[in-house]
Amino acid sequence: MSKPLDAALSIEIGKAIKSKPNDFFNNAYKAALSNKKSMYVQGFLVFPGYPYKPVEHGWIELDDSIVDPSLAHLDKKPEELYYFPAHRLPLKKLEAQVEEAKEDYPEDEPLPVYGDMPYEYYGDVMLGGNDYKVAFDEALAKSKELNKPNQN
């Protein structure tokens, strides 16, 4: 079961880090850097309506809640959002992997961070192993449930 979304804290942190639309992974990265007790999370976001499929997304977790610094840009009610985590990284590991990606692939964006090998694609940019497959399959099932064709 997914943790609950703390909408008020999500908006507050989003403002504090000056979150940007459609920059989910960087917003989550900046939010993680702003709170040393956070866990950076990559996974899939599902909601009713367009694009009618899981969206690759990033957020942080604090204690027992989800904090989404991109919430203000989603144009959705918090109760319409469903989060499916695929990859969790503590801050030190996140920073190390971002630095390594910048060194190894300076022409590419360092985020999202790849999951464990062997890799498979999930969506347009995320690569990961079995954890991604499980999260993607669960997100896809929820998306189909929320976006059933009108039977009338």
3D structure, described in words:
The chain is built from four helices and six strands; from the N terminus they run ααββββαββα. The chain has helices at residues 7-16, 24-34, 91-104, 130-146, and strands spanning 39-46, 55-62, 65-67, 82-90, 120-122, 126-128. By secondary structure, the chain is α+β, with helices and mostly antiparallel strands. It has a four-stranded antiparallel sheet with strand order 3-2-1-4.
- Class from secondary-structure proportions: alpha+beta
Calculate the mean pLDDT score and round it. Answer: 91
| Fraction of residues in β-strands | 15-25%
| Shape category | globular
Give the oligomer, counting copies of the same chain as homo and different chains as hetero: single chain
What would a concise description of this structure say?
With 152 residues, this protein is of the alpha+beta class.
